[in-house]
Amino acid sequence: MIGIVDYGLGNLASVAGAVTKLGFQAEVTADATRLAAADKLILPGVGAFGDGMKKLHERKLVAPLTDLVLAGKKPVLGICLGFQLMAASSEEFGEHEGLGWVDAQVVRLAPEDQSMRVPHVGWNELHQIGDCILFDDVPSDALFYYVHSFRLAPANDNIVTGECDYGGRFTSAIQQGSVFGTQFHPEKSQRHGLTVLQNFLEKA
Question: Which long-range contacts (CB under 8 A, 24 or more apart) does 71-74 make?
């Protein structure tokens, strides 16, 4: 069973639909007991960092999720805002403390070409870095779908597995042990996105 964390923000139905389409059982839940019973977790999300952390705290999910992921080594995939929430902090609309699963800060996306619009919305090529099971059978020039105004800035580049060039490169995918994350939306990225999800579900 794949536990999809429901904290009140995000594209829960589309993520659950993609997981089900790939032949896996998906359960959208805010129940920490059910999340503990899951084989793997997906932390999706759309919206602002501060709101996301507030809702996770309101549903008393921060401590249980952190225990499952860091102590229990349960595989987790963060998507878009969920990817950013795994960082230590964010500067989005003030300073906010994150889940702290990876040593990183979330900062504003600032393309070198100031004519490029923020938020970054649309399809862009992923530059794969090193080996990562998420990208097994994914071509090096594959396109993925993005919607975001902030980016993850890791303290250690060793966790970076993918970058996107949007007026300068930014981190678009990471792996740290059993913690995976993508700034892009695999559930909205058609065939290659489904391959990324399938790799996580089958191999992580």
Answer: 72/36, 73/177, 73/178, 74/38, 74/40, 74/41, 74/178
Residues 6+ apart with CB under 8 A from 71: none
Q: Please compute the mean of the pLDDT values over residues 22-27 and round it to a whole number.
A: 97
Q: Which of 161, 130, 159 is nearest to 144 (CA)?
A: 161
Query: Of 132, 164, 187, 192, which residue is the catalytic one?
Result: 187
Could you please state the CATH topology (level 3) that the domain comprising 2-203 is classified under: Rossmann fold (3.40.50)
The reply to whether 148 belongs to the active site is no
Q: Nearest CA to 132 among 42, 47, 204?
A: 204
Q: Quick check: is 187 catalytic? A: yes
Hey, where are the domains in the chain?
A: 2-203
Residue 60: Cβ within 10 Å count: 11
Catalytic residue among 80, 92, 132, 192: 80
Does 80 participate in catalysis according to the annotation?
yes
Whether the predicted model's global pTM rises above the 0.85 cut: yes
Of the residues 95, 185, 192, 202, only one is catalytic, namely: 185
